[in-house]
């Protein structure tokens, strides 16, 4: 039986949104599980916001299906709104009121009794690190403080899912780190499902369990970083980078003759450089991992090994490969 933690909480199948002739979201198949932190990653105009609006019932799909907590947002928007907290990229507050006042207003709109609301709001302000700003008007808040208040504002109605559109936009690095930590804690400690839309690879990589890459309305890849890296590296080849000295003709020849080698990119050496004590670099790609054989070869040739590592693909490589290589769009079939 499927455990609670793995139960789907958001399901989209063949979800499509057209604006006139333009397809903003095309045939989207995606399932997000309870408690997951999922990152929607993609350039401007990729369809991230349109997807979010369909989940919230704020725009109707042209075709296909979306279910949020088992509900159809187009038919049951209020039910969905009760369960989902949405923080747009530019949160609006009453600027001449305090953070506490703003939270109490949101609580009132959500039908929370005033006594409970006050306690909850104070607790939330502490949780997002705004407990020392109780008398300050929101108009005087920094962007980072506003975003933290935005998170408290979506949490006050105790949602099952929070959707954050570019939550770290315009915040300094320290503020970003704190905000990401807060989001991660919310998911880990309280089982909250988090959907995060972003342009920032590194931030998404830090806290998301899985990432979906959107390009031109299509979800072209989805998975954890490891599985995306595998998709990137799907011909099974392994690349090893090494640094050694002194370099010799023998070392060159033996490395380029390794069994299972696909490509060898040795240093550009002159006779003089062969005797250099400065380490030189080589890149070896094989049909399998040649790290230990390459290391042994260096030592057998009487050279010192200054470094050797199997190349690991990060989200950066993946992002560039998918976003800059139109040819990769074909891989979109059958992802979950
Ligand atoms: N109300 C609308 N009417 C017509 N076209 C729209 C409308 N909303 C969005 N679009 C178009 O749909 C496409 C997807 O836009 P969307 O805002 O979903 O992208 P996005 O990935 O969220 O981009 P960004 O990162 O800039 O917010 C874009 O080409 C956009 O111009």
Using brief descriptors, characterize the structure shown.
Rossmann fold, 26% strand, disordered C terminus, six-stranded mixed beta sheet, 12 helices, Alpha-Beta Plaits, 35% helix, 336 residues, four-stranded antiparallel beta sheet, alpha/beta, binds adenosine-5'-triphosphate, elongated
The gist of it:
Helices cover 35% and strands 26% of the residues.
Question: Into which percent range does the helicity of residues fall?
Answer: 25-40%
Instruction: List the quaternary state of the chains.
Output: single chain
In sequence order, what are the helices and strands, one letter per element? Answer: EEEHEHEHHHEHEHEEHEHEHEHEH
Number of helices: 12
What is the CATH architecture assignment of the largest domain? 3-Layer(aba) Sandwich
Largest sheet: 6 strands, mixed
Strand order of the largest sheet: 5-6-7-3-8-9
**Structural class by sheet pairing and helices:** alpha/beta
The number of domains? 2
Mean pLDDT: 86
Bound small molecules, deduplicated: adenosine-5'-triphosphate
Number of strands: 13
CATH class categorisation of the largest domain: Alpha Beta
Q: Indicate the overall shape.
A: elongated
CATH superfamily of the largest domain: P-loop containing nucleotide triphosphate hydrolases
CATH names the topology of the largest domain as Rossmann fold
Strand content: 25-35%
Organism: Paenibacillus glycanilyticus
Family: Belongs to the ABC transporter superfamily.
Keywords: ATP-binding, Nucleotide-binding, Transport
Domain ABC transporter: 10-241
């Amino acid at each position: 039986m499927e455990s609670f933690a793995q139960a789907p909480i958001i399901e989209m199948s063949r979800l499509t949104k057209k604006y006139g002739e333009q397809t903003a979201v095309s045939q989207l198949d995606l399932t997000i599980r309870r408690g997951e932190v999922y990152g929607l990653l993609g350039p401007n105009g990729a369809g991230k916001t349109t997807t979010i609006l369909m989940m919230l019932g704020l725009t109707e799909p042209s075709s296909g299906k979306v279910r949020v907590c088992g509900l159809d947002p187009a038919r049951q928007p209020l039910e969905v709104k009760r369960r989902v907290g949405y923080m747009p990229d530019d949160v609006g507050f009453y600027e001449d009121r305090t953070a506490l006042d703003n939270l109490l207003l949101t609580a009132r709109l959500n039908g929370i009794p005033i006594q409970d609301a006050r306690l909850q709001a104070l607790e939330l302000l502490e949780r997002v690190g705004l407990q020392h700003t109780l008398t300050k008007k929101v108009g005087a808040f920094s962007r980072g403080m506003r975003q933290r208040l935005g998170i408290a504002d979506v949490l006050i109605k105790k949602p099952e899912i929070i959707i954050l559109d570019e939550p770290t936009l315009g915040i300094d690095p320290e503020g970003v780190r704190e905000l990401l930590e807060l989001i991660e804690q919310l998911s880990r400690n309280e089982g909250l499902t988090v959907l995060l839309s972003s342009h920032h690879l590194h931030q998404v990589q830090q806290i998301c369990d899985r990432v979906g890459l959107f390009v031109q309305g299509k979800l072209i890849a989805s998975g954890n970083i490891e599985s995306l890296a595998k998709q990137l590296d799907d011909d099974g080849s392994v690349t090893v980078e090494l640094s050694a000295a002194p370099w010799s003709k023998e070392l060159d020849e033996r490395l380029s003759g390794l069994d299972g080698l696909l490509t060898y990119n040795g240093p550009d050496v002159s006779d003089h450089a062969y005797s250099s004590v400065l380490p030189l670099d080589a890149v070896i790609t094989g049909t399998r991992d040649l790290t230990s054989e390459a290391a042994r070869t260096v030592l057998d040739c009487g050279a010192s090994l200054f470094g050797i590592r199997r190349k690991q693909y990060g989200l950066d490589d993946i992002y560039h490969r998918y976003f800059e290589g139109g040819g990769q769009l074909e891989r979109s079939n059958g992802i979950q």
